[in-house]
Design a protein that fits this description.
By secondary structure, the chain is α+β, with helices and mostly antiparallel strands. The chain has six helices and five strands; from the N terminus they run αββααββαβαα. The protein has one domain. The strands form two sheets. Strands 2-1-4 form a three-stranded antiparallel sheet. It has a two-stranded parallel sheet with strand order 3-5.
Length: about 190
């Protein structure tokens, strides 16, 4: 109950504070590439239920729907300015609306793509699938794109058994520092 209240208040405050910059990012994307500014992707949510997650679109509309690390040359699919939006995590801002809607939390395991069967299976085996996915999480601040799936799930499992309001605040603060330093982002 406390976590959901915190999620609602923080997401509302950030949507209000970042509303104009988010509109500016959307206009920037529309001016630089064809297609919508917001990309809706099928993701695996709590209890492995699929939901639509919002992101600012950083890749061309003809990009295959696979995890970026599985692409042969992901940079060729980036729109102009897409790399900057990814490295600064500005592409994640629309997920505040997913938090408001209740599909996501501010902190939790990052939602898997609908076709990341290996990640979903391992999270289910370890019981992590019972957690609401987050904009950031313990695995995010401990390696982000650099983590192999088993290690990522180990961090998610640690979060499952140690979650608390104080731990969430620690993860949020660490996220801010990691984003500022652009740590752990490969694509």
């Amino acid at each position: 109950m406390i976590k959901r209240g915190f999620d609602l208040i923080v997401s509302l405050v950030f949507i209000l504070l970042l509303g104009l910059p988010m509109v500016a990012i959307a206009i920037f994307i529309k001016l630089r590439s064809q297609g919508p500014a917001i990309f809706w992707t099928d993701r695996v949510g709590i209890n492995n239920v699929i939901f639509k997650m919002a992101k600012f679109r950083t890749m061309r509309i003809d990009t295959p729907q696979v995890a970026t690390h599985l692409m042969k040359d992901p940079e060729t699919y980036l729109i102009p300015g897409g790399a900057f939006l990814r490295k600064t995590s500005l592409d994640e801002l629309p997920q505040l609306f997913n938090v408001l809607q209740g599909d996501m939390s501010l902190v939790g395991p990052r939602p898997a793509l609908f076709n990341q069967d290996d990640l979903v299976a391992l999270r289910t085996e370890k019981g992590v699938h019972v957690l609401k996915p987050g904009i950031t999480g313990w695995a995010q601040v401990n390696g982000r794109d650099d983590l192999p799936i088993p290690q990522k799930v180990a961090f998610d499992e640690y979060y499952l058994s140690h979650r608390s309001f104080v731990f969430d605040l620690r993860i949020i603060l660490l996220t801010v520092f990691k984003v500022i330093r652009k740590e752990g982002v490969r694509h």
